[in-house]
Design brief:
There is one protein chain. By secondary structure, this protein is of the alpha/beta class. It has two domains: 38-197 and 375-427; 203-370 and 432-499, 3-Layer(aba) Sandwich (Rossmann fold). The chain is 46% helix and 13% strand. Strands 1, 2, 3, 4, 5, 6, 7, 8, 9 and 10 form a ten-stranded mixed sheet that branches. The two termini are 33 Å apart. Keywords: Transcription, Transcription regulation. Residues 422-498 are annotated as: SAW. Residues 287-319 are annotated as: Leucine repeat II (LRII).
């Protein structure tokens, strides 16, 4: 049966690109940037981008940018698609940014005729983002007393159970407070929103009910997992001795889909499926392995599970991997490479180990973000736009007071924002670069990108269509990689690679 070709649009990566870390591995990729054609910008973003593009091109948010001859006009809201409807979180930030460029800290929205079509709730959200931008600028310019006053207002007006903007500002303000405390000793009077709990590790590993609810309700992770699995199935063909190396310690439940597919083979039945999970947490890997072993038994599938406990994914991993002759080998790296950007030598070691294996394919899923600029302001703006889309999506899939949503926003997104915005140097452990940077990096190490099949793209399209708010979830091709995003903002990517 011929599968229907999914509707996946050719498109770019969004606006702007942050510089990757300045080290020998990434030094040639500082200017990697995927541009969106002007006509496509107008179609995808009804609000003018002119001012925001300039905002992200400069190293400061100062008012003097308003005098730039490149700024032709402020946001116009005559577009009928905007009149009388609630603005998205990203649109609120774009308007607030443009108004900030023109008016600086002194904002008067009530008397601005160009904003007359915006409802009161969105006006309050624009004002709140304006306060946040002002706070970031004051910290950048070392006006710490004024930054403290502005952040106190942000604390008062933000909320962990409010609108997406109120939630977003809560976590960004928390990150700015961390900078302020480091510089001056000043502390927020709000309870620490990202304080660690005993459940945090379980949440990040995927074993917590909140993580499971997120993966079930929001389609992004399913798209990545099913597309990756289909890419592996496409590459293995009729192989009967299969070895999957999973570089991320999680539940491993994505492999049950692949196991079901293999158990249904009528010709070329599987002689042995071996899954090796690599990581530094024996307890979590054993829990995942026991679940997979139990599932394989129900399918009567010949199955072996190995766990490799390593402190780093270098030579130690190479020596411990249980490799055998005659195996078809796939390496799966879900959201793994980003964790090594803070230690580039570890990243290089991992990729060299993968190259040395008799692997037939490596499938990578990553955050499609450009959050690694050495410039604080540029990084702040990039992270703000990225998480504006993510918080907007959570608002579409969860109720405001849903406990699972609150857990994910606090334990995952809040902590990642705190790391990317509030910390510098090696303390900034959370870093993201886009698929364009990964592409150049891997090509430089003699990997060749593999085209995703129509079956893989169909799986992605089908998952999106089977979820609520399918029209807002966007699938785009970036070269041979697939990106999944929200209302045109790419959030994650999946790509497949072979060693040359």
């Amino acid at each position: 049966m011929r599968l229907e070709t999914p509707e996946i649009n050719e498109g770019g990566n969004g606006i702007g690109a942050s510089s990757p870390p300045r080290n020998p591995l990434f030094s040639n990729y500082d200017n990697v940037q995927a541009e969106i054609p002007e006509n496509e910008k107008e179609e995808r973003y009804p609000i003018s981008l002119t001012a925001l593009e300039i905002l992200k091109s400069y190293s400061s948010l100062t008012k003097r940018l308003c005098n730039s001859s490149e700024i032709k006009e402020v946001t116009q809201l005559e577009n009928p698609t905007l009149r009388g409807r609630k603005l998205s979180t990203e649109e609120v930030i774009r308007i607030a940014g443009e108004q900030y460029l023109y008016n600086g800290e002194n904002l008067s929205l009530q008397f601005n005729p160009q904003l007359s079509n915006i409802n009161n709730e969105d006006m309050k959200n624009i004002e709140l983002i304006h306060l946040l931008l002002s706070s970031a600028e004051k910290i950048e310019n070392k006006h710490f007393d004024r930054a403290k006053s502005l952040l106190m207002v942000c604390d008062f007006k933000s909320s962990p159970i409010g609108s997406p903007i109120q939630r977003l500002v809560l976590y960004f303000a928390n990150a700015l407070w961390e900078i302020l405390e480091r510089k001056t000793g000043a502390k927020s009077q709000n309870p620490t929103t990202t304080q660690e709990t005993e459940d945090d590790e379980r949440i990040l590993m995927g074993f917590h009910p909140a993580t499971m609810a997120f993966c079930k309700v929001v389609p992004f992770m399913k798209v990545l997992q099913f597309t990756a699995i289909q890419a592996i199935l496409d590459a293995m063909g009729s192989s009967t001795r299969i070895h999957l190396i999973d570089l991320e310690v999680r539940t491993g439940m994505q492999w049950t889909v692949l196991m079901q597919s293999l158990s249904g083979r009528l010709d070329h039945p599987v002689e042995l499926l071996k899954i090796t999970m690599v990581g530094n947490s024996r307890a979590w890997m054993e829990e995942a392995g026991n679940q997979l072993l139990s599932f394989a038994q129900t399918l009567k599938l010949p199955f072996v599970f190995n766990l490799v406990v390593v402190s780093d994914m270098g030579e130690e991993m190479r020596e411990k991997l249980p490799m055998e002759d005659g195996e078809w080998v796939a390496v799966y790296a879900p959201l793994v490479l980003r964790s090594m950007l803070v230690k580039p030598h570890c990243l290089e070691n991992l990729v060299e180990v993968v190259r040395s294996l008799p692997s037939n394919i490596m499938v990578i899923t990553e955050v499609e973000g450009k959050h690694n600029s050495p410039s604080f302001v540029k990084r702040f703006i990039e992270v703000l736009f990225y998480y504006s889309a993510y918080f907007d999506s959570l608002d579409a899939f969860f109720d405001s007071n849903d406990v699972n949503r609150l857990v994910i926003e606090r334990a995952c997104m809040g902590k990642w924002i705190q790391s990317m915005v509030g910390r510098e140097g090696e303390e900034r452990k959370i870093r993201h670069v886009g698929v364009d940077v990964w592409r150049q990096f891997l090509k430089g190490l003699r990997f060749e990108e593999v085209e995703l099949s129509q079956d893989a793209l169909y799986q992605a399209s089908l998952i999106v269509k089977n979820h609520r708010n399918a029209d807002s979830c966007t699938l785009e091709m970036n070269g041979k990689a697939l990106t999944v995003g929200w209302k045109g903002t790419p959030l994650h990517s999946v790509s497949a690679w072979m060693c040359l």
